[in-house]
Amino acid sequence: MKLKNYAVGQWVEGEGEGKPLYNAINGKLIAYASSSGLDFGEMMKYGRETGGPELRKMTFHERGRILKALALHLYGMKDKYYPFSYQSGATKADSWIDIEGGIGNLFANASLRKKFPNETYYVDGESIDLSRGGNFMGHHIMVPKEGVAIHINAFNFPIWGMLEKVAVNLLAGVPSIVKPATLTSYLTEAIFLDIIKSGILPEGSMQLICGSARGILDHVESQDVVTFTGSASTGQMLKST
């Protein structure tokens, strides 16, 4: 079995054999993961030109409601993810934090919509007088970035690590490319399949790379965002690749 990446609206197997992934309990082979052959530049372009405009058309309230709908959908399927999690060596308590805690992040961020207006933008602070007579004024407004959020996640929480990050960028109206740690990416792929199959999110909102993402940062532009789980040394390593 080879894990699939979700790129430019399609499920794609990477070229070659890929990296073998093993069951942490019994050492049996689970799957292979490869991203060889993926065009990271096209993935970034697809997120910016397809996912971004669709999300930016929605208000904060609309984006919050799709987060809630997605959370309810995944919560109803949560039991199916536990067997995948156990293969990573996780205990039931570990798995609960990852799976149900991850889905809980969607619920929590969905509720934050109530703190924002039912608009596509957010007015920051009061108006500012720009002239003595008060006939020229300005307002700061917050609007979504017109780029893509790249999330580079750790191996220990393959669901929670993804959902806590994408909940934020989706509420903000920004599409994402998710790069889970390859070691446990089979669990991320399992829930990602259900996210895409649900049809709840606009096309282009999320993409997935199960194998190596080396080189993707070469395509980052000023409107893009990069997040990662790790220390300052992890950040320096990513910056140098």
Question: What does this molecule look like?
Answer:
It is a single chain. This protein is α/β, with parallel strands linked by helices and 241 residues long. It has one domain: Aldehyde Dehydrogenase, Chain A, domain 1 (3-Layer(aba) Sandwich). Helices cover 39% and strands 19% of the residues. The chain has seven helices and ten strands. The strands form four sheets. A four-stranded parallel sheet has the order 9-8-7-10, sandwiched between helices. A two-stranded antiparallel ribbon has the order 1-2. Helix 2 runs antiparallel to helix 4 and helix 4 runs parallel beside helix 5. The chain starts with a strand and ends with a helix.
Summarize the structure.
With 241 residues, this protein is of the alpha/beta class. It is built from 7 helices and 10 strands.
Give descriptors for this structure.
241 residues; four-stranded parallel β-sheet; two-stranded antiparallel sheet; globular
Helix/strand order: EEEEHHHHEEEHEHEEH
CATH superfamily: Aldehyde Dehydrogenase, Chain A, domain 1
Strand content: 15-25%
Spatial strand arrangement across the major sheet: 9-8-7-10
Q: N- to C-terminal separation? A: 29 Å
Gross geometry: globular
Level-2 CATH architecture: 3-Layer(aba) Sandwich
Rg: 19 Å
Q: How many domains in all? A: 1
SS-based structural class?
alpha/beta
Given as residue ranges, the uncertain stretches (5+ residues, pLDDT < 50) are: none
Percentage of helical residues?
A: 25-40%
Determine the mean pLDDT: 95
- The third-level CATH topology is Aldehyde Dehydrogenase, Chain A, domain 1
How large is the count of helical segments?
7
The strand count comes to: 10
The main sheet comes to: 4 strands, parallel
